[in-house]
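look at this one:
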Amino acid sequence: MPSITTINLYGPPALIGLALLWGFARILHLRQREGVSVLAFLGRKRNPVEASAGIIGIVLNLYLFARPFWPALDDILMVQPFAYAHWGVAVMAIGILIAVISQMDMGHSWRIGLPPDAEEGMDLVTGGLYQFSRNPIYVGIMLFLIGAVVVAPGLFTMTCLALTWVFVSLIIRQEEAFLSDKFGDAFEAYKARVRRWL
């Protein structure tokens, strides 16, 4: 059985790798089988809020990947050892699982970024995890980040968590305006029934 230290160091890169593999497979599946271009952000000018959130995610993931192979990185970033860091790996896994299930619940309506215009065939998704939260993918992302703070507690990971919260909150407002415009009263009724987060 692997040691707690091994889980703390290699668990996050393994989870990130699995999540990336899943994401790429899902994008290819929707593109080839259903003709849906998931990468909506490619069809319009770059949104600075989405770009900032993406950069934070890339930098944090690179750090978590590099930790096992470059131990001095924790000293550089002043990461404090934490006896219960392995619980953070579990929280990260739960966050990824929630995000994956939420993507599946969205079916062919899932996009990365807002499309330039409302697309034919997009549905208002209110079932699955979306009956409990209007934004379960973002709930999963935030849980992943909370887990990262537990795994590698320090100013760097806490800053990534705080900035992601700010940027995701702004992205959600943009998405809600888009959904309100596209789905009108149906979205407003859903919004009144289901909370933004939990």
User: Anything to note?
Assistant: The CA atoms of residues 109 and 122 lie 5 Å apart.
